[in-house]
Amino acid sequence: MLRGARRLSTAANIWAKIPAAPPDPILGLVAAFKASDAPRKVNLSQGAYRGGDGKPYILPSIRAAERAIVSEDTDKEYLPQEGLAAFGKLASEFVLGTDSAALKEGRVATVQALSGTGALRVCAALLKEVAKVDVIHLSQPSWGNHHKIFGAAGLEVRSHRYIDASQTALEFGAMKEDLAALPPGSCVVLHACAHNPTGCDPTEAQWAELADLFLAKELVPLFDAAYQGYASGNPDVDAAAVRAFEKAGALPLVCQSFAKNMGLYGERVGALNVVCASVAERDAVFSQLQGPILRPLWSSPPLHGARIAAKVLGDVTLRTQWMGELKGMSDRIISMRVALRAELERIGAPSPAGGGDWSHVDSQIGMFAFTGLSAAQVDRLREVHNIYLTRDGRASIAGLTSPDVPYVAAAIKEVVEAA
Ligand SMILES: Cc1ncc(COP(=O)(O)O)c(C=O)c1O
Predict the structure, then answer these.
(1) Domain of 349?
(2) Angle between helices 316-346 and 405-418 (to 10 degrees)
(3) Which end of the chain is more exposed for a tag (fewer CB within 10 A), N or C?
(4) What pairing do the DSSP bridges indicate for beta strands 220-225 and 269-275?
């Protein structure tokens, strides 16, 4: 105990009665994985890409951009609240497309943010404090941090149905029914592609139906675009839903992250784009973001990562190289899905829904497979086999490598049969 602690009056020690907060479910697993000294262990808990060798992958295009920036001997001055202008322009074009009517007409307020999480947090503050929106609607399930981010900004979180009873496929009818029942002006979070945690996205036709529904029911679409380019390997394909909504006349808010698609996790590079109906509305929203929201929050966003992203997005050679690397990451994830499914079916692992059909493992999309395993089965995977995934049965396929596929498949078979 602190020497002389008794001299501190209880009123001055404001920490005396503070209980420890529970660990974050995902970050807690990562810490447990790192602490484990098991000779064979597999981390499928966190959405971070690993190369075929199981190691973090630094994209060569990103390294090249970084070297170029360093050699340019640039300054380290503060950015304005809204961030690096070149980055904001390129980021908004990346997600909305260079032929976006809203961009051409100057109706999009874009600000740089601390990666996707920061973009969502700024967006939540804008909704609550400026637009006076009190409720946010999330799919059930959704990325766990969505609940915390919107809750921390003071919004009430409500959920609509998304996944079917087998926990492996989208229940589109139920989703639509729940959304159609919302009051006009309701704000709904949509995962632009590679839905986290389920890996189940609406089809192109279903997205078109949703855009019609949002227009008819006057709902506000808030796209979380954390995986653009990662799901299919093609950023235009992965942005199709966002662009379809804009084209249909909806006014989407779009939160972007460059953590996964550029491998810039720790650099915290992201953006919030607010598509408005007019230039005057855009200017008002932009000024609200600059002053009331961003100035007291972080005042000025980080410079280095935004410079890297702008360099890669804005340089034809680097951008082409990056597209190839992005496709390579996406292809590796897809090949791991195919391999895991094939191995599970080859060894006759009973699937959670009954029978031995594991087709959902390769029909789902993006970084995650929603395996359908129960929390008890996930616990056994960790305790007996040292394989870590979140308790909702979500496995990060980006963390799987070829040598681990037979080990993981055999372990899954064992826990399903033991249940
Ligand atoms: C659905 C979703 N949104 C947003 C993010 C934000 O990530 P970051 O803050 O690292 O950009 C993630 C990261 O896992 C995610 O899965």
Answers:
(1) 24-57+331-418
(2) 40
(3) N
(4) unpaired
CATH number of the domain that residue 398 is part of:
3.90.1150.10
What is the model's pLDDT at position 334? Answer: 92
Q: Same domain for 303 and 376?
A: no
- The answer to whether residue 13 sits within a structural domain is no
Nearest CA to ligand 1 atom 11: 116
Q: What is the pLDDT of residues 15-33, one digit of tens each?
A: 888 999 988 878 888 888 9
The verdict on 295 and 361 lying in the same domain is no
Q: Tell whether the torsion through CA atoms of 163, 166, 168 and 169 is positive or negative.
A: negative
Give CA angle at 185 (182, 191), nearest 5°.
Answer: 75
Judge whether 336 lies within some domain.
yes
Ligand 1 midpoint to CA 234 (Å): 19
pLDDT tens string 292-337: 999 999 999 999 999 999 999 999 999 999 999 999 999 999 999 9
Contacts of 360 (CB under 8 A, 6+ apart): 168, 169, 369, 370, 372
Measured in Å, residue 226 CA sits from the centre of ligand 1 at 5
User: Which residues share a beta bridge with 160?
Assistant: 139
Helices within 253-315 (DSSP H only): 279-288, 304-314
